[in-house]
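Before a colleague's protein record goes any further, I have to sign it off. My question to you is simply how this chain folds and whether the tokens agree. I do not need a full report, just your reasoning and any doubts. This is what I was given:
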Amino acid sequence: MIPDSIKREHILKAIDEVKGSEIPAERDSDKYDFEYDNRLYPPKYIVSLANKYANGKELDHVIFSGGDETNNFLKSRGFNIVDKEPETDFEKEEHDFAPRLWDYLENIYSVRLQKDSRRAHLAFPSGVIINVRGSKILKDHRGFYHLLEDQYKDIVDNSNRFLAVVFGSVENTFLFPKEKVATFFNGYPVTSREGKTPRWYFDIREDNKNYY
């Protein structure tokens, strides 16, 4: 059961705690997020952290339930719960390129990479983190990709982040620093459906070994 002593101010402190860090993959949410200041957070994880500020220690996630219990608790503290968008087959396919690029870089350049806590992110020993997008080459010689708003913000707000775009095979990988990413997407998502996470869709075309 969630302690009633956890108030809105404790939840806000938990949000501040995770803003500059990574959400552990095992603590990410499956079906729901809650929204604050145009960002989405995993409900159970934030409630667990909020207990530190209310009662001195993180709340063990096994003693309370996700779904209705956590969602209703957060609603009672004035937060909005949203359904987590299911990942499309297209988005799953994009993520499948990260392990391939990992193997390729380690074999070709003898560099030891680590899996970042977020899916499709690879971490270098130097501290550089790349967000990997990938696509098969379509019949019209295009690769088709997407980038979520929070992924865009993570790249442009951190000097050690890069966007890696794989065109068909890992041998054709384009690496973009945050300045280029900000220029390409011009600051805001161009695709945002009501109730859906803002995102950009973009493509890369190949014409006689020239890429656009």
Residues 8-83 form one domain. The chain has seven helices and eleven strands. The CA atoms of residues 67 and 102 lie 35 Å apart. The longest helix spans residues 43-55.
